[in-house]
Amino acid sequence: MNLVIFSGPPSSGKTSVILKVIESFKKRAVAVGVVKFDCLYTDDDKLYEKAGIPVKKGLSGALCPDHFFASNIEDVVKWGNKAGLDLLITESAGLCNRCSPYLTGVKGVCIIDNLSGINTPKKIGPMLKSADMVAITKGDIVSQAEREVFASRVSAVNPKAMVMHVNGLSGQGAYELSTMLYDEKQSLSSVQGMKLRFPMPSAMCSYCLGETRIGESYQMGNTKKMVWEEKEK
Amino acid sequence: MKEMTIAQLLEKYPFVTEFFQQNRLNITGFEQLTFADYLQQLDEDELEEKAIELQKLPEELALYIEQMTAFLGLNEDSGVHSLTILPGKDKNAVPEKFTKLTIFPSQVVAIVGPTGSGKSRLLADIEWAAQNDTPTGRSILINDALPDAKWRYSPNNKLVAQLSQNMNFVIDLSVKEFLQLHAQSRMAENIKEISGKILAAANRLAGEPFSADTPVTSLSGGQSRALMIADTAILSASPIVLIDEIENAGIDRRKALEVLLSQDKIVLMATHDPLLALMADRRIVIRNGGIHAVLETTQEEKALLQKMNSLDTIMQSARRELREGKTLHTKDFLSDFRL
Known about the structure:
By secondary structure, chain A is α/β, with parallel strands linked by helices.
C-alpha cells in the first residue's frame, strides 16, 4: 500500500482536491481510501462516502489535532492494509499552522489557496515548508498576477517542493497531481518507528492541564510573555 | 557559495532578500557572517519559536539561488517559439480528428464547444506539457521538440497564464503597489517603468480611466479586466495565455487581444461569443472530451464578422444612450440596419 499525507489550512480545498485526485485513480483501477482528521466536527466523510470511497474519520476533540494524528497514524495504516487499499490518503487540517503531520519517507502534500492572501506562505510553518508537493487552489478566481506572486512566495519558503495549480471544482491539474502520488512498487505495511519531519512545540503549561483562571499565579510550566517595553534604538 | 558572506550573497543575488524575508530570517546586522555561521548563532529557543529547521536551510538557499538564476536567464529569451498539439482521443476513445496543430507567438486560436466538453482538460494538457500520459493521450511539443521538464516541475516556469471572467483582485493594495509587487516577484529591474507601461496599456483598454493610486479592489469589472490583461501581457512569465470568455462590457476586446499579441504571447481563447470566435484565424471545436475539428475562419465569416461588429456597435450605443437617460429614435439607427 502507498500512503500519502495531505495537509493544509482549513477551507483551503483539501477535500475537493482529494476527491478529484481519486476520481482519476478510479479509471486506473487503483483502490484508494481516505482517513479524515479534524478537530471538532467534519462532514467531509459523507462526501467521500457518496463518491464510493472507503473512509474513516477521527476527531481530536479536546486534544491537539497534530498530536492526535501522531498517536493514531499507526492504526490508520493498519486499517488501510486490512481494507486492501492500494493507496491510503490521510487528510488533516492545520489549525495553528505551526506543526505538520508529515513523516519522513512518506509523501506529504500541502494544499493552500490563493484566496488566503499573499502573506500566507510566510505564516505557515513546517506544514508548507516541509511538504514534498504543494498544490495551490482557487486560482480561477484571483488574478494571474496574484497567482504568480503567491507561487513564487511558496517556492521561496520551500524551494524543494513541486508547486502545482489544482482546481478543486473543474479538476484541472488533479490528474497531474495524482501521477505524482502513486508508485506501484512501493509497499508500506507499517509506519512504526518512522519519524515526524518536524517536532511539535515543547509546550506544557497549566492551561494544557485544564487551568481556566487568568493570572500570573496560576501560570506554570512553559509560558511565554509578550514584550512591552519599547526597545531603545 | 558556502564561503560567501550574507553581504556578498545579497550583492551577487539581490533576490535572496525574498528568501530571507519569506523564511522570517532577520539578517540585519549579520551581513558579515556566512549564512551557515548566521544560522549557528541563532539560539535554540528562537529556532523552535519560529519553527525553523536549521540543517535544511543552507541547502534550500542554494536551491533557491539555482532556481532563480535559471528563471532569470530564461527571461532574456522567452523560449517558446511554437506550441504544437498532437492528437489523442475523446472520452469514448475515438481518435481526435486533426493531425497536428501548431500555434506561433502572436496568434490567436479560439476554443468553442459546450460547457463541460473538455476545455479544462485541453488546458491542463498544455499546462502539464502532456506526453501521451494524460487521459486524452495528447502530446505537446514546444519548439517542435519534447518540452523541457521545467515546464512541468518548476514553480516559476508555468506554460499557461489564465484570464477569466471570474477573476478578482483579492489583495488590498493600490494599482501602483500591486504592479510593483508583481514586478518584484518577477525580478524585473526597471520596476517603475514597467508599472507605468502596464497602467498606460490598461487605461487604453478600459472605458473609464483609473489612476495608480486607486485600490485594485475598488476597480470596476471592466477596469479590473483591463489591468489583468495588461499585466499578464507585459509581466507574466508564461508564454501562453488562456482567455476564458471576456464579457463585452467596459473593455475594448479587440485592443485587449492586440496588447497580448504585441507581447508575443500565444493566445487561446475559450468563448461562446461569435464576435470573439471569429476574431481568431483558427478555432478548435471541442466535443465529448476531444478535439472534434480545427477550423480556419473563412473569408465569408470574416465578412460576416464585420457586419456583426456593426450590430454590436448599435447595441453598445443604445445601451449607452439609455443609461444616459436619452430616448431612442428610429432615424438614428435606420442606416445601420442594412445587413
